[in-house]
Amino acid sequence: MIVILKQNAPKQKVEDLLGQLKGKGIGIHFSEGAHTTLFGLVGDVSKIDQEALEALDIVEAVKRVSEPYKLVNRKFHPEDTAVQVGGGKIGGGSFGVIAGPCSVESPEQIIGAAKRMKEAGAKFLRGGAFKPRTSPYAFRGLKAEGIELLLEAKRETGLPIVTELTSLRYIDLYSEVDVIQVGARNMQNFEMLSELGHCDKPILLKRGLSSTMEELLMSAEYIVSGGNPNVILCERGIRTFETATRNTLDISAIPLLKQKSHLPVIVDPSHASGIAALVPVLAKTAVVAGADGLMVEVHPNPPAALCDGAQSITPDTFDQVMEDVRTLCGLEGKAL
Ligand code: PEP
Ligand code: MN
Fold first, then answer.
1. Counting ligands in written order, which one lies closest to the CA of residue 127?
2. What is the b/e burial string over 243-258, where b = at least 16 CB atoms within 10 angstroms of the residue's CB?
3. Which end of the chain, N or C, is surrounded by fewer C-beta atoms within 10 Å?
4. What is the DSSP string of 170-230?
5. Is 128 in the pocket of ligand 1 (CB under 6 A)?
6. Three-state SS across 269-295?
């Protein structure tokens, strides 16, 4: 971090600031030029409040030269993190596919879907019990009953389950859930992130609708700094000026997040496009771009889905997606 001082900053105030920073264990590289005086902060500057420095009357500007996230930064942890999910893994060379309907609708629907996802070779089942919906009048999930049905589907098939937590109020219902999903709308619910830092379950952290990659990584840092290293990042499209698709899949985020962080990165082509016909090609694109996995919405009867039918693919289309993904990964005949 570089701090540029205002011209004619009173010497005493500069000394005070340097003393304060040194007191926090920060090393200082001071440089006094003819027109500009600046100093570089050396050491762990992750706890230095950039905005507080900028607000000081002797400071002209503050520039970061390193990332504000540390624990999720690949610089300090060069090896890939593989997150253990039930008996399977995502990341570190293990490709994982999470598939299932947008929401849990009935015992027949979720148990039928779970069996079909297993048959197609998916290792993990998704399904929303608590649904964040734009309209309060839309179907908002079966809630506690939905979790029960997911657990029944897990007992029937052995597939670990991934489901979204929309509020910390419901956390006690998630004791047997395998992966807790933090949805796009909660990516910056910092209370929730801190609390999930104390839990022993893997967290699937979806990118916020209008969040930068750095914001996504800072949210992951909340969870990891709380003590939970098992975070999977999910690129699910961001909001842009384009309205032809529900969101815009940010392909660059896949290699860039993997370059910046050691955490696994998966892609959700369903929410990224909102269009079922685009899901297979986006899924393949994600694999080519280096994703560690996919999260795909699959419904036994998409036109009858209570949520996100337009972006849900059929189980038969999913079979084809799985075959193509296996071919791309060189894992023919394997469950993913
Ligand atoms: C979901 O996966 O069910 C979901 C609501 O996705 P997102 O949070 O990415 O919109
Ligand atoms: Mn959905």
1. 1
2. eebbbebbbebbeebb
3. N
4. GGGGGTT-SEEEEPGGGTT-HHHHHHHTTSSS-EEEEPPTT--HHHHHHHHHHHHHTT---
5. yes
6. HHHHHCCHHHHHHHHHHHHHCCCCEEE
Stretch 82-93: mean pLDDT, rounded? 95
184 CB near ligand 1 (under 6 Å)? yes
Q: Which residues of 54-76 are buried (b: 16+ CB within 10 A; e: fewer)?
A: eebebbeebeeeebbbbbbbbee
Q: Residue 295: its pLDDT value, please?
A: 98
The average confidence (pLDDT) of the chain is 96
How far apart are alpha carbons 257 and 245 in whole angstroms? 23
CA dist 292 and 255 (Å) reads: 11
Q: Is 154 in the pocket of ligand 1 (CB under 6 A)?
A: no
pLDDT at 47 over 90: no
**Residue at 82: amino acid letter:** A
